[in-house]
Amino acid sequence: MTLPPAYLEITTQIGCRIGCLNYCPQEKIVQSYKGNKTMTLDQFRLFVETVPSTLPVFFSGLCEPFQNPSTIDMILYAHRLGHPISIFSTLTGLSPTDAYKIVSIPIDKFVLHLPDAYSNAKIPQTQDYFEARSIIEMNVKHLEYMNMGWNFVSNKCEDMARGLATKKTGRRLCNFLESPAYQLLPNGNVYFCCMVRGLTEKVGSLYENTYLELAARHGEISDRLQKDPNSICHYCNVSEKYYLRRLIQKKNELLKGKTIMQCLGV
């Protein structure tokens, strides 16, 4: 069985100006967080010192990454170390000059969060925004789009953080529970995944632990979250029924991408 890819997701700042409060519980994030709110380049260099260079790094997290003016330097530094780079951004705070720096390196995936008709995402549409967006759109090969318009479906992380999620029964499983997809915050704390917007399920700290030490804890933490009926995973919309997911994985493994009808030659 092939495991989902592991990665490290970076939150470069706490307190997001985009204000997608219908879908992102910023008040809970800010309330729960302790420590410096803006990651410096020197901190980032220290945090990734023990992270394997083959591990993909995602610049996304609990805030628009380019609110932090040092994010562009973090991206370039991570690239020099050899990390595959993905970016999830509204482009708020990204200058045209820095946009040219981004397109000078390979980006595995760039998910561009666009303005929506309902103003769920409050993205300032300035001259810099349109220039930077044009540079990204014309030069990034692996570009995807999303917005919070009429057909947007929330993963309900906002309900989890605000105590409004419905509890699910039985053992749970998801990509995060199968492979480390940790969330790094500016204070060095590492949390289990991006769904824990209330900043629960701390794995450790990259001030105190190496990345490999944190990754070694994944199996134990995952097993508890899967089985404990009161764990956060039993309130999460991303998680699935354990045995159903395993059944689908086994089916896909046996069929090797084909449909049952194709296997039967029908």
Task: Explain what you see.
The chain is of the alpha/beta class and 266 residues long. The protein has a single domain (7-239), classed as TIM Barrel. 33% of the residues lie in helices and 14% in strands. It is built from eleven helices and ten strands. The protein has helices spanning 26-32, 41-47, 71-81, 96-102, 127-139, 157-161, 175-178, 211-216, 218-227, 242-255, 260-263; strands spanning 7-10, 57-59, 85-89, 109-113, 143-146, 172-173, 181-184, 189-191, 202-205, 240-241. The strands form two sheets. It has an eight-stranded mixed sheet, covered by helices on one side. The chain has a two-stranded antiparallel sheet with strand order 6-10. Helix 4 runs parallel beside helix 5 (127-139). The longest helix is centred in the C-terminal third of the chain and has 14 residues, at 242-255. The model has no long low-confidence stretch (mean pLDDT 95).
Task: Provide a concise account of the structure shown.
The chain is an alpha/beta fold and 266 residues long.
Q: Give the N-to-C terminal Cα separation.
A: 27 Å
- Report strand %: 5-15%
Structural class: alpha/beta
- Which spans have pLDDT < 50 for at least 5 consecutive residues? none
Tell me about the biggest sheet? 8 strands, mixed
Strand order of the largest sheet: 5-4-3-2-1-7-8-9
Number of domains: 1
CATH topology label: TIM Barrel
Number of helices: 11
Order of helices and strands: EHHEHEHEHEHEHEEEHHEHH
Report the principal-axis shape: globular
User: Judging by the overall fold, what is the CATH architecture?
Assistant: Alpha-Beta Barrel
By DSSP, the count of extended strands is 10
pLDDT averaged residue by residue = 95
For the record, what CATH class applies? Alpha Beta
